[in-house]
Design brief:
The strands form two sheets. A five-stranded parallel beta sheet has the order 7-6-5-8-9. Strands 2-1-3-4 form a four-stranded parallel beta sheet, with helices on both faces. The chain is built from eleven helices and nine strands. Helix 7 links the parallel strand 5 and strand 6. The protein has two domains: 169 residues, 3-Layer(aba) Sandwich (Rossmann fold), CATH 3.40.50.1370; 152 residues, Rossmann fold. It is α/β, with parallel strands linked by helices and 325 residues long.
């Protein structure tokens, strides 16, 4: 995609619909802005199918992956996305940063900024950490997951996958099952799905459903069988034991019995239901192996779409800076 093509997609300079320095949360975006990212991601999908998987859109730009939590899919796909746009990439983890010597997050970011980078992609265990950086430094800041707040690019790749498989999002019934309380993915999915017109129901053990979540525009149920019969898409979430400070259910076995998805529970589901999971999967807990690898699963499509979605985000944010220079 050329800059000229982008301008045609986005409208005139005065009429552009992408006007953000950073991407911190899907809550902050309009439906039109989300659709722009999805449309741009669609145009980048074919790049990954080429023999030479590279376009020069961000040549000369430098992007830093600053990850204070473990990650496989998100970190790898952001790095691939940047490299396929011809940007230079640097990976910094908590264990290899000056944070282990006591340096503050803000001082770390300020030092990276001093090296004239163009964007920092940050994952952090503290909700709000990306916003602190975005307010303090000039480079673009992209949230790769902050505490239990949001994971906007996961939400975008989920939306992209649903739209590709179903042809639309408007009017779909979507169920989100599992540890809603601690899930940043759930929050980004809810904001994205509801802004684009889907009807969302969350389900899980009562202690793992946040109080007042209905204010986000969703319904709540504690009966998995009730939503399986009617949803078009079922998003299952990992049980985040590392974030849980207490006991939210009697045992993993009990959780799997009532909220794990297997063939028996899918009896009566729509024949074209989509089963999704942000990963990593606890096999036999959230999903039985035959469901995770079966005909309803689009989990690997989600992973593939993560590269295209993150290419789109980097192109729109970092590429927009190039146009303004």
């Amino acid at each position: 995609m050329t800059k000229e093509t982008s301008k045609k997609k986005n409208g005139t300079q005065e009429g552009r619909i992408w006007a953000h320095k950073d991407l911190l949360a899907l809550k902050d975006l309009s439906a039109r802005e989300i659709e722009l990212i999805l449309d741009t991601a669609e145009s980048f999908k074919e790049v990954s199918q080429r023999s030479i998987k590279k376009v020069p859109a961000l040549r000369g730009k430098t992007i830093v992956n600053l990850f204070f939590e473990p990650s496989t899919r998100t970190r790898t796909s952001f790095e691939l996305a940047a490299k396929r746009l011809s940007a230079d990439t640097i990976n910094i983890s908590k264990s290899t940063s000056a944070a282990v010597k006591g340096e503050s997050l803000l001082d770390t970011a300020k030092n990276i900024e001093a090296m004239n980078v163009d964007a920092i992609i940050i994952r952090h265990e503290a909700a709000g950490a990306p916003k602190i950086l975005a307010d303090a430094i000039a480079p673009a800041v992209i949230n790769a997951g902050d505490g239990a707040h949001e994971h906007p690019t996961q939400g975008l790749l989920d939306l992209l996958t649903i739209r590709q498989k179903k042809g639309r999002i408007q009017g779909l019934e979507v169920g989100i099952v599992g540890d809603i309380l601690h899930s940043r993915v759930a929050r980004s999915d809810i904001w994205g799905l509801t802004k684009l017109g889907a009807k969302v129901t969350v389900c899980g053990p009562p202690p793992l459903i946040p109080a007042g979540i209905e204010e986000m525009g969703v319904k709540v149920t504690y009966d998995l069988s009730e939503i399986i019969r009617r949803v078009d898409v079922l998003i299952t979430l990992r049980i985040q034991l590392e974030r849980q400070k207490g006991s939210y259910f009697p045992s993993i076995r009990e959780y799997a019995r009532f909220f794990g998805i297997d063939n028996e529970k899918l009896q009566g589901a729509k024949p074209d239901i989509l089963i999704m999971h942000p990963g990593p999967i606890n096999r036999g807990v959230e999903l039985s192996p035959d469901i995770a690898d079966g005909k309803y699963s689009v989990i690997l499509e989600q992973v593939a779409n993560g590269v295209a979605a993150r290419m789109a985000v980097l192109y729109l944010i970092v590429g927009a800076q190039s146009e303004e220079e």
